[in-house]
């Protein structure tokens, strides 16, 4: 049930609108000669609209209902009659001008005279209202309104009809213009996107140096790599990325990349070039020459399914990702710590990618195919065209017999690889990925499986890791069964908001047939932002048993990396 105060507010709002229609709007139309077109209005039609259309309730039904526990007769018996009407809200002793419904109650009393009070001039505005009381009050107010409507004269109705006829053409024209405007608005809403190209850029400056203990460093085959510490170097990489969308849901990306001297411009890459100890950001670009780093087009042919095709694709942009160890401009720089080394021997080239996330749920399925020499119609000795694209690569020294002649080139010839990944990601706190990789490199087939996980223990602390097992046939030392692992921790917002710190270790090539030991890589870094666009990162690398050779001394490097983003 509702209270009397709310009843007054409901009546006042409804009757004010009806009054405006029948009196105020009509008076204005006579003065200005303007009124909306509508069917011819008569007093009988107005009365018919207000009078109830449903089957009326009989007196017998009312009497039967009143004798029940509704309390209608008891509640209304004490109300004042029409002989002692209320003419002002101020006459009611328990109604104050500060009451929230005072003005609505006052309007009903003064305009329509359809509100009565209890004895002793009380209104009891907070008392509950039965449906019968509501019906009685509504009937009184509607009858008052009907009486006001019936004062319309035949001349008034004639004026209304004449105004309708005079403005039929104008109103029809107005309706046509409104319809046209609605059509144009709908078209604009459906085609509001325009082709847009956005430019982003990144520049990485790094000062790096290092050395090793012992007398010399040798490769897995026993060939000497260095007998003295390399020079400290200042290295760089710069990229310009053009992102274009034609429909708002697609992406054409073109990236131009340049760099200093590839993997030979840093101590880690020079002293241990075989098992991914190189600084990853130094790989793309050669001696200041600009090259094509990315060229692909991504679109969504169906909901939750993305398809990418391109001539310059890096598989690690789509698979084997990890929130804490995957970006050499943000977190770790050692290549063996940011991707699964044995599952991605040839990740750069031309190809296609699918990414299916059913219902935008926690499960995703991704597939990648890339061919390193897709643009070559004949066989060649180059292991791939990924010099400007980046990513890890298999050590050619393990396949000397086939390395020169084994790569046929073309879209389906060696080197090529496929990669399939099933991911389960529970919000942004946990993700687990199962992986399969297979293909052909240096004329030799390989297959591998792996796993990748990340877990945020809190907003500041996370752990992560990777594992891989692969089979490489026909190497210079026979069929290989290498294993790979890495693991680490990440600290967010350490000392400074937005700062990231991490430490990780890994073994990229666990294989007894290669060398007499197992290489282990360590890295620690601290990335702190000077602002949103400039971030400085000191990092340290330690490499033991480099190249799986126990006679090699420990390699130490230090790097100061600065990243500019715009």
UniProtKB/TrEMBL annotation:
SLH domain sequence ranges: 88-152
PANTHER family (UniProt xref): OUTER MEMBRANE PROTEIN ALPHA, OUTER MEMBRANE PROTEIN ALPHA-RELATED
Gene Ontology biological process terms, A to Z: carbohydrate transport
Species lineage: Bacteria, Bacillati, Cyanobacteriota, Cyanophyceae, Chroococcidiopsidales
Record GO terms (molecular function): porin activity
Keyword Zinc: no
Protein name from the UniProt record: Cyanobacterial porin
UniProt organism field: Chroococcidiopsis thermalis (strain PCC 7203)
Listed InterPro entries: Carb-sel_porin_OprB, Cell_Envelope_Struct_Comp, OprB_sf, Por_som-like, SLH_dom
GO cellular component, one term: membrane
Signal peptide start and end residues: 1-27
Family note: Belongs to the OprB family.
Swiss-Prot/TrEMBL keywords: Plasmid, Signal
């Amino acid at each position: 049930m509702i209270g009397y105060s709310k009843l007054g507010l409901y009546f006042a709002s409804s009757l004010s609108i009806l009054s405006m229609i029948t009196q105020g709007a009509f008076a204005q139309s006579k003065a200005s000669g303007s009124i909306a077109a509508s069917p011819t209005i008569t007093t009988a039609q107005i009365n018919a609209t207000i009078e109830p259309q449903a089957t009326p309730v009989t007196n017998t039904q009312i009497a039967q209902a009143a004798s029940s526990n509704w309390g209608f007769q008891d509640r209304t018996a004490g109300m004042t009659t029409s002989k002692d009407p209320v003419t002002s809200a101020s006459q009611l002793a328990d109604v104050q001008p500060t009451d929230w419904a005072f003005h609505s109650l006052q309007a009903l009393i003064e305009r329509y005279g359809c509100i009565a009070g209890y004895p002793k001039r009380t209104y009891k505005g907070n008392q509950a209202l039965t449906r019968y009381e509501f019906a009685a009050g509504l009937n009184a107010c509607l009858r008052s309104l009907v009486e006001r409507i019936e004062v319309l004269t035949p001349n008034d109705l004639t004026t209304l009809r004449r105004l309708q006829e005079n403005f039929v053409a104008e109103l029809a024209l107005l309706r046509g213009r409104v319809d046209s405007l609605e059509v144009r608005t709908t078209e604009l809403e459906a085609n509001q996107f325009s082709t847009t190209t956005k430019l982003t850029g990144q520049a990485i400056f790094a000062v790096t140096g290092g050395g090793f203990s012992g007398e010399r460093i040798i490769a897995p085959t026993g060939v000497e790599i260095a007998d003295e510490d390399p020079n400290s170097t200042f290295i760089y990489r710069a990229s310009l990325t053009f992102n274009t969308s034609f429909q708002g849901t697609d992406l054409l990306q073109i990236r131009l990349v340049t760099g200093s001297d590839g993997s030979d411009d840093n101590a880690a890459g020079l002293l241990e070039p075989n098992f991914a100890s190189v600084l990853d950001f130094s790989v793309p670009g050669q001696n200041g020459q600009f090259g094509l780093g990315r060229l692909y087009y991504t679109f969504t042919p169906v909901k939750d399914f993305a398809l990418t095709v391109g001539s310059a694709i890096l598989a690690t942009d789509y698979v084997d990702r990890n929130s804490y160890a995957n970006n050499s401009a943000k977190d770790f720089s050692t290549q063996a710590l940011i991707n699964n080394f044995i599952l991605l021997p040839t990740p750069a080239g031309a190809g296609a990618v699918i990414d299916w996330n059913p219902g935008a749920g926690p499960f995703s399925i991704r597939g990648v195919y890339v061919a390193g020499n897709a643009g070559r119609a004949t066989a060649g000795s180059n292991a791939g065209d990924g010099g400007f694209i980046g990513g890890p690569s298999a050590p050619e020294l393990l396949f000397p017999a086939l390395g020169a002649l084994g790569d046929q080139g073309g879209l389906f010839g060696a080197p090529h690889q496929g990669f399939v990944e099933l991911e389960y990601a529970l919000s942004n706190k946990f993700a687990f990925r199962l992986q399969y990789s297979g293909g052909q490199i240096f004329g030799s087939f390989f297959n591998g499986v792996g796993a990748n996980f990340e877990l945020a223990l809190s907003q500041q602390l996370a752990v992560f890791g990777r594992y891989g097992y692969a089979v490489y046939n026909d190497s210079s030392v026979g069929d290989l069964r290498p294993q790979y692992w890495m693991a680490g921790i990440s600290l967010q917002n350490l000392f400074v908001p937005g700062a990231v710190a991490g430490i990780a270790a890994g073994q990229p090539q666990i294989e007894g047939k290669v060398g007499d030991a197992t290489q282990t890589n360590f890295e620690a870094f601290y990335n702190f932002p000077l602002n949103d666009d400039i971030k400085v990162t000191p990092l340290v690398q330690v490499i033991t048993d480099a190249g799986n050779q126990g006679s090699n001394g420990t390699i130490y490097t230090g790097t100061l990396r600065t990243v500019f983003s715009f």
